[in-house]
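FIELD: query
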Amino acid sequence: MDSGDAIPLSTSFPLPFRVLFLIGLGILGWATNLHGLHLLGIDAGSALELHSGRAFLPTNSSSSRVSYMPVYRLFAGYATWCFAGWSFFRLATHSNTMLVDAFKYIPALSSLGVLTTLICPFELCQKRERDLFLQSAARCLFSSMDSPVYFSDVVFADVFTSFAKVLGDVWLSLCMLLPGGSLLSPPPLDGLSQWILPTLMSLPYIIRFRQCLIEHRSPTNTSKRPLLNALKYASSFPVIFLSAAQRNVVLELAEEKGELATREPWHGEHPLFRLWLLAAAANSLYSFWWDLTNDWGLNLLKPRSVESRSNPRPLVLPSLHSKASSIAGSSDTHIVTQSHTSSSHQVLGGAIYRHQSYPYGLRPVLLYPLPVYPLVMFFNLVLRMTWSIKLSSHLHSQSEGSALILWLEVAEVLRRWMWVFIRVEWEVAKNAHHKSQIMTIRTAPEEVELMPSHRSDPMDDD
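FIELD: result
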């Protein structure tokens, strides 16, 4: 091979290794989520409802917080195994395209090792974390319509939607690794096989759609919010399946214009193409609105009357396992104080500020520095738009070796990593508000003032 020639990504980093890389990135992202929440003083275990007495949790846990160190150790072992497999593959092939398929057993063994370790019943490779993952996946897939939907399973399924394309790549990798397949090009998808890929990519959205229906049917539910949330996930299906139908569009245009039409990414003259484009835009914008308004509780896109706003004071969180001390507030800040010696209410056991005024588009309770919120909103909008396009397999069916596709998948994992921080923050803020309401009933009015009497409660906006 000429040293001046660029090495194709399918030669240096074939699709099975890219799948393993993205899975590892997800594990690392989850570990840093738990670590970051812990550093902020947030009890991730209580917020994610991981300590509600379910049988799969160990009973001898000395702390209510979710430990992030086992997840880091799991990632370290996973990364070591995958990196060793990829390094061996590179040494064996020497970037020679002719040798790639001869050594495709290496990524096959690497993937088989990961799968075997995941389901291994022995006490090794962080079995507790592996069991938690498998049991959460089982609840998402097989729970009855009468079962409760835990917040941890909601977060798990939402993270799973960011790996929808990775799930499709797992199927393509399997086809490549089987006899007759090639790592250098994706398998042909003809006939019924062309619908296998979009069906697999739809699975995470089907899971969340089902969870929303379960929440709607719950006897305690009195709102239409679960149905509106279900609509968000249902809007992904037209994007995925209309993309699969674009193969028929290409065939029709090839008959009219010749083979050159098959190499063009834009087919605006065909109604199915325009319908797919409309579905992608609708899904992206609706998902962005839902992220800000409901998942994050921000007021940017909520219809609200004009109110006076100013910079809020930082939210002071209590330290773990300690009683909160009283904090004096200014005239425009109201404080809710609740002391607990129990470690299961780390972030709830202290002072949470309520602000009469706050920056435009945000909310009264903020745990992170102010610049974080506009940056996260901007990146979320951009990556939401690109991710709907990423769900469209026809745009990259002929370029599985493109580095752009890989970077878009990495960007989506990064977007979901940021999403988890704000989503858990909002859940903590809502839980603190509800607990403070219960506390108010037991406390003299002059001791605690949740909100000024002339203003509606901003925590109930959604």
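FIELD: remark
The first strand starts at residue 333 and ends at 337.
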